[in-house]
């Protein structure tokens, strides 16, 4: 049984990832700003903007469940605003949650994984990193960074048998879509672009995370897997 730590665990995709990793037989620590009460997980209310809080969550996870062998960096914020109007504080907030926390969590995880003789890190990016997206520049930049960080860490941590991969979701019907003014028009927009003519389910995203985190992917590292119903084909 491996200890898995998932960030942004109270969100739609995070919940599905926690449920799937628990079903896979892992002990799961679920971190989120929302207190959360995911059944079968160690729920840790954690503000990922705070480096000390991240450190404390890793320490508590190790103390209660054992060293972390799987990390899923999934939390994100995505305030929508025209580029020229984005205040610096908002840019800093987006980068603190979507990028700096990924970095810090990976540092803590890699330390604990070294004790175990290996592990798996999965970073969550976004389809928006490929084609860009108006009014989301800071978010899109952090998602490109998640994929690039994946490759850099995969290169550096491979000799420690720590695999680092990335999952890039397309458009899943979650609360994140509330940023779009007309939900029906957005749904049409998505289906016109996807090859598969239906919306993805969070479980379908979680299944790919599970694969990358597990033994079946033991020779896979440094990769980004697109899970988008055939929208962007990389
Ligand atoms: N939903 C989609 O269609 C979609 C598309 C592309 C990429 N993604 C990516 O998938 C991941 C999950 O997305 P989602 O749709 O479940 O989003 P969501 O907004 O439902 O969940 C994100 C979670 O992160 C948490 N969070 C935000 N700031 C935090 C902080 N400071 N400290 C701790 N937790 C914090 C939120 O409380 C929330 O529970 C994100 O990385 C997102 O970029 C989602």
How does this structure look, described?
With 234 residues, the chain is of the alpha/beta class. The chain has a single domain (3-227), classed as NAD(P)-binding Rossmann-like Domain (Rossmann fold, 3-Layer(aba) Sandwich). It is built from 7 helices and 7 strands, in the order E-H-E-E-H-E-H-E-H-H-E-H-H-E. A 7-stranded parallel β-sheet has the order 3-2-1-4-5-6-7, sandwiched between helices. The N and C termini lie far apart (34 Å). The relative contact order is 0.15. Residues 8, 10-14, 32-34, 46-49, 74-77, 97, 124, 126-127, 169, 171-172, 174-176 line the site of nicotinamide-adenine-dinucleotide. It comes from Nonomuraea zeae. InterPro entries: NAD(P)-bd_dom_sf, Sc_DH/Rdtase_CS, SDR_fam. Belongs to the short-chain dehydrogenases/reductases (SDR) family. This is SDR family oxidoreductase. Keywords: Oxidoreductase.
């Amino acid at each position: 049984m491996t200890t898995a730590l998932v960030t942004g665990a109270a969100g739609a995709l995070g919940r599905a990832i926690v449920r799937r990793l628990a079903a896979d037989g892992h002990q799961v620590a679920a971190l989120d700003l929302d207190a959360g009460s995911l059944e079968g997980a160690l729920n840790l209310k954690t503000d990922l903007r705070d480096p000390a809080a991240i450190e404390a969550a890793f320490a508590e996870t190790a103390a209660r469940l054992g060293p972390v062998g799987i990390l899923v960096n999934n939390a994100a914020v995505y305030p929508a605003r025209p580029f020229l109007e984005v205040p610096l504080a908002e840019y800093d907030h987006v980068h603190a949650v979507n990028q700096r926390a990924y970095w810090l969590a990976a540092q803590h995880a890699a330390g604990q994984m070294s004790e175990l003789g290996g592990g798996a890190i999965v970073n969550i990016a976004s389809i928006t990193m490929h084609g860009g997206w108006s009014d989301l520049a800071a978010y899109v930049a952090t998602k490109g960074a998640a994929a690039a960080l994946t490759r850099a860490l995969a290169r550096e941590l491979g000799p420690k048998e720590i695999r680092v991969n990335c999952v890039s979701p397309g458009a899943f019907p979650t609360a994140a879509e509330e940023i779009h003014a007309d939900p029906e028009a957005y749904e049409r927009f998505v289906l016109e672009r996807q090859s598969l003519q239906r919306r993805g389910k969070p479980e379908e995203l979680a299944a790919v995370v599970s694969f990358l985190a597990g033994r079946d992917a033991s020779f896979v590292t440094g990769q980004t897997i697109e899970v988008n119903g055939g929208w962007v084909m990389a």
